[in-house]
Design brief:
mainly beta
Length: about 120
């Protein structure tokens, strides 16, 4: 299984970025984005559940949108109205929906910096 994130970068507050996560070796609905800010623990940002519903942490609700192109096996995170507190390394994660809530597969991360 390989997850490769891209799309990070530096942006001014109020701007937008679109993160991508290309998956190989796994085909699953159950994918998520996590993030880790400097000096903080990794936290959940957004996920797609088995019924294809989307969940978000409160701090990004209304600003971020998660989606997946199943034909391309690629997960996306559209991030709008970015704030400095969104600065973090963003990680893509995947699991088999039938194997429980833990995400065993992770990408290497892509850095998002908001100034």
């Amino acid at each position: 299984v390989q997850l490769v994130e891209s799309g990070g970068g530096s942006v001014q507050a109020g701007g937008s970025l679109r993160l991508s996560c290309a998956a190989s070796g796994i085909s699953t609905r159950c994918m998520a984005w996590f993030r880790q800010a400097p000096g903080k623990e990794r936290e959940f940002a957004s996920r797609i559940d088995p019924d294809l519903s989307a969940s978000y942490t409160d701090t990004v609700t209304g600003r971020f949108t998660i989606s997946k192109d199943f034909a391309k096996n690629t997960l996306y995170l559209q991030m709008n109205s970015l704030k400095p507190e969104d600065t973090a390394m963003y990680y893509c994660a995947a699991r088999l929906c039938s194997r429980g809530p833990t995400f065993p597969y992770w990408g290497q991360g892509t850095q998002v910096t908001v100034s």
